[in-house]
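Folds vary. Our protein:
___
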Amino acid sequence: VHIKKQHEYLLKRPKLGKIFVSLTQVKKRGVALYIRDNIMAKQIYKDEDGRILMVEIQDNDQKILLVAIYAPNDNQETFYRKLHVQMTKLDYTNIIMMGDWNGIVDVKLDYKTSTKTKKIKKILPKTFFQMVEELNLKDIWRERNTNEKQYIFYSNRHLSWSRIDMVWISGELNFSVQDIDIGTSIWADHNPITMVWKGQKKRNRWTLNNVILKEDKFKSRMEEELTFFFKENKKEETSLQNTWDTMKAYTRGIIID
């Protein structure tokens, strides 16, 4: 989420539900989960690096562990080993693990580049594959799109597309998923993944009501909020792309609220 720990209040949006976060003192990482108010939920674990967040929810008397991940680019062997150890300690049967894994599973299906050098995106380490095998986790989108080539993230630096955001779920939960789609991004550099639970109505994507752009009260508030945002986000070495994407997410949250 690229928000400092002391600015957690900026993420609170009552209309989105209860919020759970794992944040640090730097804006280069951080994960958050919004859970609807009518769903029983409690935090189970979060790390000190703003990369792992675990929340237990209940669905029809069934306990499910939601795990939000923002994996590092470096030292992935160690990261996934520690994650595996933590998951083993908790010993949940039903798991949904999702987020930015910063690596791919299959070079032929999950990566595309037009550059002559064709630098290959990093394959996830052995410790990752050991973890998902022992926990019986399945890449739910790939299970239903065996040979499809659809991507999540575009790298301006490497001029490449890759599928680094994924949802891995316990094999037993596969039958509870009605649908899963990779959408088209309109406000970030990652395309969204939408997963619909059986019995749940598919919700329409949020769009901006352009009428409010003419309201003086709205314009004044947005000017105040964005002045504050850019003042806070000029203090650290964060890439322009990350600052831009975070600003769009921040703005969207204010408008929805």
Observations:
- Helices lie at 76-90, 107-110, 126-134, 140-144, 216-233, 240-256.
